[in-house]
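Format notes (please read before filing issues)

Several people have asked whether sequences and structure tokens are stored in separate files. They are not. Every record keeps both together, in the order shown below: the sequence lines, then the token lines. Line labels are part of the format and must not be stripped during preprocessing.
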Amino acid sequence: MSRGGGNEALAFLSSLGSSGIRLGLDRIERALGAIGNPERGYRIIHVAGTNGKGSTCAFAAACLMAQGHRVGLYTSPHLVRINERFQVNGEEISEQLLAERLLDVLERYPQARQDPPPLTFFELTTLLALWHFAQAGVDVAVLETGLGGRLDATTAAQPTVTAITPIALDHMDYLGNNLAAIAREKAGILRPGVPAAISRQEREAMDVVERIAAEQGVPLYIEKKDFELRRGLSGALEYHGLRFDLDGLRLSLRGPHQMQNAAVALASLELLASQLPVDPAAMREGLARTRWPGRLEEIGSRPPLLLDGAHNPLGVESLLTALSALYPRRRIHLVFGVLADKDYISMIGRLFPRCSSVRLVAPPNPRALDPAEYLSKARALCWNTTAYASVGAALEAARASASPDDLVLCTGSLFLVGSVRERVLAPSVPAT
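Then the structure lines:
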């Protein structure tokens, strides 16, 4: 492929979007070797978990940037544009640079273009991210796992520090049908001798993680035991950590659950300190300046539009807690869409009775659940429930039915949140 073939390269990347999920490390390890193992040139914080791992990555990256370090951030899925997945010092990769980096990778690993392609979409984007961060000269990269941990493509990179956020039932077709099995997959990111920070867990999950850490010689630090972010007697947030005690902290991300995510991020940075220090002032600044769109993100007013990526039962529970804290006694008009592989029965059973009206829609994803399949169940939980053929129609109907003091809420899938966000913020948010 010629150096002028940037559009062709991007088209090839897009063509892999339906490549599906193929867990395993052999393919990505071969590809990394072919391009010179760029991931060995910088430090890595690797974060797994069911919920909160993206927010934890965002907190950690913001604190590192506040210290003046050059930071790569790799997350998934994206909300609007694939460029969101690849950030250096808070800036998404440009279209031109994305094409150039992809051409670099394809020139060094031409086997990627074989038919059928040896790499999935996620594997190629992971390869691309690790190459991009090396070329950008980052000091540290913060990597969010895509699915599980043990066999996730990001696990091919050797971490400096690992972290695990709350583990819950999700992706059971791939990770196992109970909490212990899923915890084994998440704990697969742990490495002998590499320190790890872990949030508090259900006992079943914690037992698994602690056993694996002991077997592998992993220095394990646990929230509420070794570190904690809590609200003090004055009402201000206090962090009691491995090295530092900080008070008067402010989190820019909303919701009580973000205290847990921030605590894991701070503990990860303390574990990194021997190689890449972050002082308390930078931690304080980073927590206050972190941005993570689509998570309890409020847009507009009267009525406000709230976007949240709750996509499993644990996410819904966190959302309900946040709604009670941030929007008490508000009437909620819900736009809801979910993927077919989610435990949507548990999700709607908790969320829909809290709503005054519900609009069902399929998220823009091939794995979306058809609203017709659960419309009758939904109406038993909220009588004022209607199914819509498009995200735009569902959003318009919800806004039309809401009074200025109500709340319009969009949740159930990050793909739905991304579609709504693009629609509402266009043209300020570039379209794909």
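For reference, the curators noted about this record: Confidence is low (pLDDT under 50) at residues 428-432. The chain has 15 helices and 17 strands.
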